[in-house]
Structures
1.
Amino acid sequence: MNIAILTKFNMDEKDTLPLDSGNNDEFPMSVSEKLVRNEVRKLTENSKEIKKLKEQIEKKNNKNKSDL
């Protein structure tokens, strides 16, 4: 029983089928590669959001300085 469960997930770095095999145009990814790509995507989205927030703060600060 345990062997059957463990064979569903291959944690090696070699190419394996992705968990969601709906993307046939991409090369197969290992589980760890998929996890890393998801984390990179999240960090990229977060950095874009932080950049927008910094720009908003700068605009607000510039407006406040001009009002003085």
2.
Amino acid sequence: MHLLKYLAARNLIVVGGLGALIIGESALAATREEVSAAPAISGDPLYTAQSLRDPMKSLLPQHEEMLRPARDDDGKNAKKLAKTPMPVLELQGVLWGGPKPSAIINSEVYGVGEAVKGVIIKSVDRTGVKVEFQGQVLTLTPKGG
């Protein structure tokens, strides 16, 4: 015990909870220099999320890109694409009074800009829903309305 007190008094020993570490004076001097040379951290960290990807944004191609007709090398329509019939969409209701107008179509809620079976919702108002399918804008109205 006397030896530990002697070494601790001369900065040659560091006593911890479960043991002791004996170090020399030169190692202590180097440690003191490293601590004093370390940069001081001040203020808030420099974290900004502006360069990060929005985790809620889909990585899949947008619906408008998928509906664009094929083109040949000249930039003209390659062939008259076979018109597919518009899918059956049942407009069951509209929610148009708030900041995000929505439509209930086929028992699902959709907002402006979203697509239902390849049909893009362009606008929602009290009279119905304007949709775009293969370049044509159509209006859906609720049944009985």
3.
Amino acid sequence: MRWTLYCIVLGLCLCSGLAGLNAGIIFNPKNTVEFLPVWGSLGDWVAGLGTLFAVGVALDQSKRQQDRERANLKITVEHGTDLFSVRLLSNGLTPVTVLAVHMEFDDYESSINLATQSSGNIKLPQKLVLGDTLDLVDFRNTEFSHFGQKLAEPIIGRLSDSGVRPSDGNFGVNEAFFRR
């Protein structure tokens, strides 16, 4: 919308300038010889602006074509109290090859290979073309708790190595505090 408004304003300014130039030539006939070359070079300016516009259109079309041919992969993650699933969908014209799928943690330098955690054990690498989907992980109920244990093992091991030990955490209520 803004571009249209800018183009209209620019066109009106250009028309006003040309009308002023034309009026100056008509109402001052003895100076017509001086201004006639200026009027004659208008075609050169229009041709130059047309060329610049054509270059802009060509660049825009090549960018759109490049974006269309780019590999495009959509990742959908669903999670709940007893559910965790990861699905890949190929949206681009260019085929996508899935080489590996890992879940990594920034705080704890560890990762889990999601492809081997699923009950189906997905074979990778796998090629996806336009519209293909790949269900990488689909944990429900007991599989989800097993995945949670696998996920927590490296973290618990690192905590144990640093001296933190598990306990029941049932310390009770400090009743002396409430008797005051």
4.
Amino acid sequence: MLKTALVVPESERENAVSLLGKLGVVQIHFESRAPGTAGEEARQLANVQSAISILESADATPQPEDRNTPRDPDLSERILNLDRRRAELAADLTVLEKEAQRIAPFGDFEPGSMAPLAAHGLSLRLHRCTPADIKDLPSSLPCSIVGRSKGQVFLAVFRRESDEFLRLPEVNLPASSLDDLRSRIAEHRNRLEEIEMELSAHRCHLAHLNSEAVRLQQRVEINRAVKAFRIDAPVAALKGYCPAPDMDRLQKLAAAEGWVVLSESPGPEDAPPTLIRSKPWIDAALPLYRLINSLPGYRELDVTPWFLLFFAIFFGILIGDAGYGALLVVGLVILRTVKPVPAPLLRLGWILGGTTMIWGAITGNWFGLEALSSLPLLRSLVIPQLHAYTAASQDNVMQLSFLIGTAHLTLAHLLLAVRSRRSLSALAQIGWILIVWSALFIVRFLVLERPVPDGTYPLLGAGILLVVPFTNPEKGLLRGMGSGIGNLPLKLMNCFSDIISYIRLFAVGIATLAVAASFNEIASTFSSGGFFGMIAALLILLVGHSLNILMAGLSVIVHGIRLNMLEFSGHAGMEWSGTEFNPFKLVSPSDP
């Protein structure tokens, strides 16, 4: 990645931005002042996007637009006004319906007709009570039971100010009659239906609005990019980043337009973006990076191939079922026939499905059914030492998990050693490799009670002797040794715990098998119950295995990614501080 500066005449800024957008190889550096205030086009874009969202939620299939009908320049505003009116009517309708529901038990009467009673010192009061409260009412008080509902009695009482106060819940008099409320409710509902029909009719303009949104989005981006220029009349300069392989294309454009392009390697104070260009199969890691929203920093190791390799291994062991892997592969085949699938995502699916099938086949796990692994063809694929249905295999899988973890951490230090091969710090990485393997033998003893091989502790000591003086050689011998000794105890403890952490591969894998086998056993108890028993068994299998696949998938996110992002990254000195390279690109809107 190269840090670039494009120098153009001040008057050609917008033309330069348009040509850069078509070229699509430069990420523009926007300073905090560059975006400026939102302009008219930004407001229009927001309106168009809101209108699109409103129409997409309307209940109708979009019809082809009539090209002979002149387009309404205020279409977006009209749609927004309809939506605002719809929201107002819906809110008013809710209030009216609640009010009608509140006074419905008292029947239909006109509140205004009660006014003459006031001249005689009478007022109408509405109350609700229980049937038991009726007998306690004063006999002299004129009242009428106007309704009953769900154990409640509704009363209309005519009283004078001097009458005894009723200790019953009072209901406020309505402002309108029930008949008037119902009429207004009907009007609101009719108007809402009309608005829905109007919005549905506008769905034929969706293609045009989408095209208009693209056009306005590009105008907003062009304006923002134009403001990113630093002006020193009569010229203006635009800073950015360009991948080194694409620099020739930028130079050719600049030469053709009479511009000046300056480039240099990013300095320590710069934060260049990360661009990962790999072979197609390695690009399968990109969906994972987007899932976890992380990228290696520009100055960090590019661990993409190794990230993908070990994640695929972790995925296969954590899922652990060849049947589930086959379902993933079949699902991808079906999905491809329904809609296009991005190539990196498709390749990732093939890889993960393949590793799951391989691990499931060599351990004899097909949908948690031991009987399937006994079939001649499938039995020939099983490695006896790893057979999932033998007790001895558990120790072997645990030991393999530790071995995979050791190889993973060894790779991290080996990559650092290669990167720092011209520095004495490479010796410290070799020392850590010795420590990691010593830790493996000690962990095997602590967890599996396997004997510690001869030479383990001398190997550990040799690793420490390399780590202490050469971790920070730039500080000098004595200060470097002091720093190395100070950090060593905690790092040693972390090294042991990191290797033990890989036991999660065994634990989660065997849990997935146990859950599958349990649902199979439950289903088998129902299968002998005739037709309905078979239906119940099939439902149990469907729900049980679906739930197991879901939980296993979550375990991959929690554990499979964790081993790459924490254990491995901690040993590789990675912080995953990268930001994805995002070149300035303009796409021509296609308006039907």
